[in-house]
Give the backbone structure.
Amino acid sequence: MNDTDMRLFCEGNCYKAYEFFGAIPEIQIINGIETKGVQFRLWAPNAKEVQVIGSFNNWSGSLHTMALNEKYGIWSLFIPEANIFDEYKFDIKTRKERWIKKADPYARLSGRGPNNNSIVFGDGSYIWSDAAWMDRRKERICGNVPMNIYEIHLGSWKRNETKYLNYREISDLLIPYLHKMKYNFVEIMPVTEYSADVSWGYQTTGYFSVTSRYGSPDDFKYLIDSLHGAGIGVILDWVPSHFAKDKHGLENLDGTPLYENQDVNKSVNKDWGTLNFDFEKEQVQSFMISSAFYFFDKFHADGLRVDAVSNMLYYGYRGYGNPAAVNEYGGREYISAIDFIKKLNRNVKKTFKNVLMIAEESGSWENVTKPDYLGGLGFDYKWNMGWMNDSLEYMKTDPKYRSFRHSLMKDQADLSTYEKSILPLSHDEVVNG
C-alpha cells in the first residue's frame, strides 16, 4: 500500500480497500529471500499501540507490534509466521491505556462465538464457470425480461436437525425449487457476518466476511456460480446504514468513536440497538463503498438490495436514533449520507456493468431512482415497502368500505409514474402477520 493508496483511502476515494487492509497473504522479499507470510493493516488513528495476536503466536503480540503511519493513521505489519486459516485479532492500546481486542474490520472470513476471531483467508481458490451468464447479464437485467424474485434466508429455508446446510448443499436443493416455482432471481438475506443465530443478519459485524455458518467464501462462490449456470440472477442484501454493537466489532474500534459519530444523537440507533455509520468521515466512505465493490468484484453479485435507506436519509427516522439531531441547516436530512449514496451508486455503475442497485426505502423521498445528475439518488429500483403496506391494508378493508380507501391504490399507481419500483411481499410482512 503506497502513499497514493493511503491518501485516496483517507479522501474517501479508495473503492477496493480490501486489496490493502485486513490480512493479505503474500510473498515479500526479506534479506533477499522470498518469504511467504501475511500482511496485516488496520486503520486506527487514535490507538497508542496495536499488536497482532493469533494462533501463530499463542495469542501474545509482544513480538508482533504494528508500525504506525502517523500521517494517515494506518498500522501495518508483515508476519512470516502467519498462514491461511490462522485465527487472529488486533490487540489495541487506547489513549486511556486500556487494551481492547478487536476483530479485523476487513476480515475475509470470521469464526463464530464465543471468541469471534478473524481468520486469514485471502481470495480463495475458486475457479468460476459463469462466463456465459456474465456476458449475457445485460439482457437479463437491463432488458425486457420480467424479474420474479425469491427472497431467502439461508439458515431457516432448510436445515437438518443438527446443523445448518452448507452453501453447496443449499445450491442442490434451491435451484430445482426456483425453476419449479418460475423464479429467475433470488434475493439472499445478509450473509455479511453477524453474531446472533436468531438474527436474519441485519446486525452486521463483518462487512467483507461471508458468514461461516454455511461454509467458506469459496462455498458461497459455488452457490452463486451454480445459480448463474441455472439462469438465475443473485441479489444480495447489504446493510450500510448501521452496524452491530458487539464488543469485538466496530464500536469504539480504537478506543474512540471511529466508524460511528462521536455525537450520540447521531450515532445511537435506539430502536435497533445498533450504531449508525458516520458518513462525515471519508475513511468510512472508502470502507463502505469497498464492501459493495467486494461483492460485485469477488462474488459476481448481480445486484445489492441496500437495506434501511430511510435510516440514512434522515436523522432519527421513525425514532431510529435521536430526533433532536439536525444538520447544519436545521433540517433532519443526513446530508453526508445522501452524498455518500449518490457517490456509491455512481461509482458502482462506473466500475461494474449491468448490475442493480436497489433501495429498500420505506419513506416518501422523491427521485430515488433518478440519476444523481438529475437530482436523484441514482438507484435502479425502489424496493417499494409502501406498495406492500398499502395493498395489504386495502385488501384487509371490508369490501363495502373500500371505496373510502381507494387513495391507497391510487397513490401507488401515481408513484409508478416517476419511480421504478420492485413490488415486494417479503420478510417484514411475514414477521408482522
Observations:
- The chain has a mean pLDDT of 92.
